[in-house]
Structure formats: structure tokens, C-alpha cells
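Why does residue order matter? Because the sequence determines the fold. Keep that principle in mind as you read this record.
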Amino acid sequence: MVSRRRELPQTRPGDWRAIKELIPYFKEFKVRVAVAMMLLVAAKIANVSVPLVLKDVVDQLDATRNPVLVLPLALLIGYGLLRLSASLFGELRDVVFSKVTQRAIRRVAVRVFRHLHSLALRFHLERQTGGVSRDIERGTRGVVFLMNFTLFNILPTLAEIGLVTIILLNKYEPTFAFITLGTIVAYIAYTLYVTEWRMSHRRQLNEFDSKANTRAIDSLLNYETVKYFCNEDFEADRYDENLAKLERAAVLNQTSLSLLNVGQGTIIAIGVAALMTLAAQHVVDGTMTLGDLVMVNAFLLQLYMPLNFLGFVYREIKHSLADMERMFSLLREHTEIKDKPDAPTLRVGPGAIRFEHVDFSYQPERQILHDVSFDIAPGKKVAVVGPSGSGKSTLARLLFRFYDVSGGRILIDGQDIRDTAQASVRAVIGIVPQDTVLFNDTIYYNIAYAKPQASVAEVEQAARLAHIHDFIIQLPNKYETQVGERGLKLSGGEKQRVAIARTILKNPKIMVFDEATSALDSKSEQAILGALAEVAANHTTLVIAHRLSTIVDADQILVLDKGRIVERGTHQSLVAAQGVYAQMWRLQQEQRHPDAEAEPV
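Structure:
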């Protein structure tokens, strides 16, 4: 089945749902938020007071009104202090509020990270890592922008506009306030209209950016496969194709941005010209002083800068909401496998396993398992064999509760695993998978991952039992050797032995080996099989095998075909039955010894 990319919901215009997600993060720092708001108010009061003091300074220095000029030292000092206060209060506000912002980023990122780990395997098989990582990266940046600029730019700017309007109404004729408000209304209306139109280009830009990033990461993660088939040019062409779409979207995005900026500049220019013309006329008529003209101009400049910035902030807030919506949509992904309310911890007993009339399907139209029933007694070893696609590995996934059964039930020590906490079920099971993927860290880290608090001696003992200790100590950096992305610096057999060591260190009650020795040569396989037999001696063990020679000592062998158990028994009894298992055994023996007859046992 070819997995398709799970599309995340797009942000709708005017969808401010993401803001509600941020409210709880303010409650953690109520005092800091209150102090930051007080500093914000103080900064705005100081800022609005600057033009008023500047008017008095100019009037004091106007020779037409004051024949004897005296340096207004107190006013000039006050002017400087107000300028300093506006800047100082603003910086103090940022210092006080920075912890709120950074803590919100931390909380949101961890929350999304935890939720991604809580989602079922189905989601992770369908997702594309590059796109998801870019969505989280942009979303956390959006949190910073939204928290800072909504509180400290939009609201303060609107408050400043209100204060300036009141001052103009009180000191001058209403025309000044009407022109100011008319300019602002026209500016905001134009900004809202064009920004909403631009959002479609922004969404396209985000989509193509995620796809290009996904393509690059996917290709680099599969570096060896690309090399095997000499497809470097093919991968580069596909990456370039995505970048070409990104380029077109970016050009459209920039063009629409320039159109928005030109329109905003035109509106502001008309408003400023109208106000200055009106003020100049009043100065000529003698109804306003030169100081009044300077004050009106200063107010306009003070409003022009934040108002111009308001357009940018609004655009970026809309962009941030789009980015955050994609990130928060991950949190709205349904958690398919959930613990029941107050689910108890699995009571660990001897480790008996029972599959009881289990049915399962990944999709309703394609059933994988049909009425599968078997028991694994404590300390016993049961092997499952069968052709590819018969459902062998699905048994391990169901036992780990990566999925819930469609019918029947799975019990560990008599407890239905659906009724117990998932973590407690997985804590008693250790697995060595067929495809071992390691963290991009040291060998020591990857072995100790099963038990982070383990001592060095415990880690080394696990490595010895997995027959990899001697190999490790011959490396220049020994246990501190970096394994590379997905463990690519190690061979398949070395990675498999690290995985075996990791499971040995966990020392679980139940062990699952999913083609655990598939990547090993015959000599290493036999050595590790001996070690595994020793380690699993007192463990309940489920072995999913392709090589029948590795499970001849199993207490019971299940033959799975098209999701049904068609045969079961010991190796000897199944060979004697001359059924499906006997045919598989004969074929494998012929492949191993083409010139000799297959041995009956």
C-alpha cells in the first residue's frame, strides 16, 4: 500500500482559534503580564507627551511671540526624559515579558512533541517528517510573534491613536481629528482587504515550502538507495520541481506584498499632506502657532510609524495564525489508541500471553488477521512463520498495542491489554525488530536507551551477551562512537546486535524477536542465537521468523497464511505432517544445500 500524505486543515480567513490555545500560557505568569502591561501604558503616555512638550519648546523659542528669548531648559530636559522614558519602559517591558514568551514556546513545543508520540502508528506511517518538522518550526515562531506583537503593538497603537484623536479634538477644530481618523480607517480597511487576499499566496508558499523540505529530507535519509540506482539527477530534478513551485509562489507573495505597501504609502501620504496643509493654513490665519504646527506634525510622524508597522504586524499575525493553525492541527489529530479512564497498571505475573479469537484490519476493506488464537505459556517460546504479508509482524504490533484488535482480545497474565495502561504493557515487552533504526548518537546511548539509568557495567554486559562488545572496544572511540543518521555508519549486522543488546539491557518479562537475525551472517547468527537462547531461557518469547532453522527449538510453531493459522506444532511434528511447514522447510534446506537432500529434522 502506498501511503499518501496526510493533509492538515488549512487556516480559514478570520480563524482566530489558535489564539485561544495561547491563553493558558498567560495564566502561569500573571504578575509578569500585569507588570509588562503597566510598563506598556507608561511608555505610551510618555510617547504621547513628547509632542505636547515639543510644542511648548517651539512656542518659547518663537521670536514673533516672545521678543525676549530665554532657553527653556526645564522643557528641554523634560523632553529628553520623556524620550528616554518611552524607550526605557519599552525595553523593560520586553525584558519582563520575555520569560512568558519563551516559556510558552517551550510548553507548546513539548505539548506537540508529546502528542505526536501519543498518536497511533497509523499516523506515523502516513506522515512525512520534513513537512511536520517545518510546520512545528514555523508554528513556534508564530507563537513568539503573536504573543509579542498582539499585546505590544496592535493594542498600544490603537490606544495611542485614541489618545491623539482626543488631544486633537480638544485643542483644535474637529477637521483635524476627522482627517486623522479617516486616514486610519482607510488604511486599516485597505490593509485588511489586501491581506486577506494575500493569504492564499501565503498558504501556497507554506505548502510548497513544506513539500520541498520533505523531498530534501526524504532523499537524504535514503542516500544509499539514491546511490544504488544512480538517481542523483532524478532526485535533484524532483527537488528543483518543488523549488520551482516555491519560487512562483514566493514571487506572487512578494508582488502582492509590494502592492499592499504601495497602497498603504499612498493613503498615509494623502492623509499627511491634507493635515499639514490644514495646519499651515491655520498658522497663516493666526489661529495656530508654529508650535501647534510642529505638534501636529510630530503626532503624525508618531502615528505614521506605528501605523505603518501595524500593517506589517497585521500581515504577520495572519501569517502566524496560518502557521500556528497547522501546528495546532497536529494537536487535534485523533489519538487512536487511548487508555481507558483510570486504566490500571498491568500486574506483572509470570508472563503468560493469550491471543483469543483475534481479528484485525488496518482498513475495513482489507482484513489482515482472521480468528487467530494461541497461547504462550510463561517461559516458553512460540514461533510464527509464513509467507510475506501473512500477518506475522502484525501480531507483534498488536501485542505492543500500537493498534487495537478489531475483534477478540489479547491477554497478558489474564488481563486484557486494552483495559490496562499502554505504558505498563510496553514496559514488560522487549523487541528486536527486523529493521533496526538507531538514534544519531553514540553506541553507548543507543544501548542504554532501554534503561537510561543503567550503569556502564550493565551496558557492557548487555553488549557482551549480544556479541558486540569485542567489536566496540576495537573502535577508536569505543562506546562513544557515533552511529550516524539512522545508524548508517554501522553494518546491518552491527545495528542488529546493538538492538539485541538494548533489549537484553531492558530485561523484560516478554521478548519479541521480529526477524532478529535477518541481517547477520551464518556464523554471527549462530553465536547470537546461542546468546538469545540463554537470555530468553526464563522469558516468555514470541519469535517471528523467516529462516526456519532459527526456530527448530521452539516449544510451538504457528504457520500463518493469509491471516489464518493453518498449522501448529513442534518442528518435528510439522515436518512429519508433510504440510505447508514441511514444504517451506524443504525449500529452505534446498537453498542452503542445493546438492544435498533436505534433512527431515
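The two ends are 38 Å apart (CA to CA).
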